[in-house]
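Input/output pair, single chain:
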Amino acid sequence: MADKQALTRQIADLINQAQKLVYEAESIADEHGLSFSVDFGTYGMGGSYTGAAAIDEEDREYYGIEEGEGRWNASSQSC
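Output:
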């Protein structure tokens, strides 16, 4: 049986890699005014991201979003 500590580190490394890819996708969306959604196949594990350039001033004020920041919405918000 594999060492549980090693497996836990492996899982943490995979999650860190996934997070870095999501940050990269956010940067692209922010720069180009794009949106994207993620769905990890488990209820409650999805959402959509709206890039900074796609958010209008009215929404910035309403949601308290700083200039240059994008916005995540939980998948449940579109139900």
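The chain has one domain: 4-78. The CA atoms of residues 47 and 75 lie 4 Å apart.
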